[in-house]
């Protein structure tokens, strides 16, 4: 029997496994995916949001706790547990030396990476390199890892973990960490959560899954049925507007189109529906998936002109290109007169001051609804480009309620040997919204806490048994 069983194979799970092993516990990791797809959504990440009070290696200037907290408070609209959020923020300032010890390397942010050089530390080689580094370290530390091993249920005894079931196999351990993600790749659960809208559409049918295909939410549903305390709205998620041509699963970060704040967004009816210049893109990019999900047909179109080219990371797919607005709208399948009028109204409303995409500039619209509050300048310079976008779900926020010790709760009472980390509990911090890199901050903080606590619980169990 292992001391600690870790269910999942992404960043949070690996942080838990490594911390538990460092604390002297024997560890088994059960990853549902094949080896080549290991790592869950972590393989698609590229950075970690970090608090720091002064410049630190790849991070410039300072990003103090209060600013990080205010950024999080703004994007969540207050739907966050401040105690747990501040725990994550403080942990983000001290985790990188430990990450380096386990083979993770960092690099300065690249040109065009959303002004994150002050707030986010980038992984050299991206999330796949981070995942591989952790697996190498786990192997060196004699952590046992099994692939193609989805856990579908747990055996519990009055809140205590006893065993996990992987198909017909029963696997005992002295403590357990659940870190196997949300339910974003479970289409039926997404349909159930989102339901049918007033237009008779099932919005979830048009969602693309930006993250892993293996997060089916089977164990999350099981825990709900077992009476575990739950937190979060099932419709809330890290939901990004991504290229409509992206694959159904595992498109990752390259499917995102980062030009929204440089142009306008119109829906299928060729009408604008939200302020494209509300705030810096890293703070607001993850609201656009949900906004698009609420539009007819769950599709929208990002429209820019040649002035925007070179100011954002080039997407993996080229945009539809045209020499006139009328030609562009026709190529996108939009009503030409409506589109041309929308664009003309926007252009006429622009009040251009000193355009600067690196600050909240004074270029805005007047007399237009919805307004564009920053970076508003007429879209007049050919060629023109359009990108069809659909909602891309990265991970869902419905999860297990926890505390500062990462314990799973039942009826308000914590388990003493069952813990949770990562996306499976991110809803405690992210009730809604997102800001770049914070998912990795949450997974790293709570993965490390859960691993440490699980090892302590397991070894205490061993000591009691010996006594």
Automatic annotation (TrEMBL):
<keyword id="KW-0285">Flavoprotein</keyword>
<dbReference type="InterPro" id="IPR027477">
    <property type="entry name" value="Succ_DH/fumarate_Rdtase_cat_sf"/>
</dbReference>
<feature type="domain" description="FAD-dependent oxidoreductase 2 FAD-binding">
    <location>
        <begin position="3"/>
        <end position="430"/>
    </location>
</feature>
<dbReference type="InterPro" id="IPR012831">
    <property type="entry name" value="CobZ"/>
</dbReference>
<keyword id="KW-0560">Oxidoreductase</keyword>
<dbReference type="InterPro" id="IPR050315">
    <property type="entry name" value="FAD-oxidoreductase_2"/>
</dbReference>
<protein>
    <submittedName>
        <fullName>FAD-dependent tricarballylate dehydrogenase TcuA</fullName>
    </submittedName>
</protein>
<dbReference type="GO" id="GO:0016491">
    <property type="term" value="F:oxidoreductase activity"/>
</dbReference>
<dbReference type="InterPro" id="IPR003953">
    <property type="entry name" value="FAD-dep_OxRdtase_2_FAD-bd"/>
</dbReference>
<keyword id="KW-0274">FAD</keyword>
<dbReference type="InterPro" id="IPR036188">
    <property type="entry name" value="FAD/NAD-bd_sf"/>
</dbReference>
<dbReference type="Pfam" id="PF00890">
    <property type="entry name" value="FAD_binding_2"/>
</dbReference>
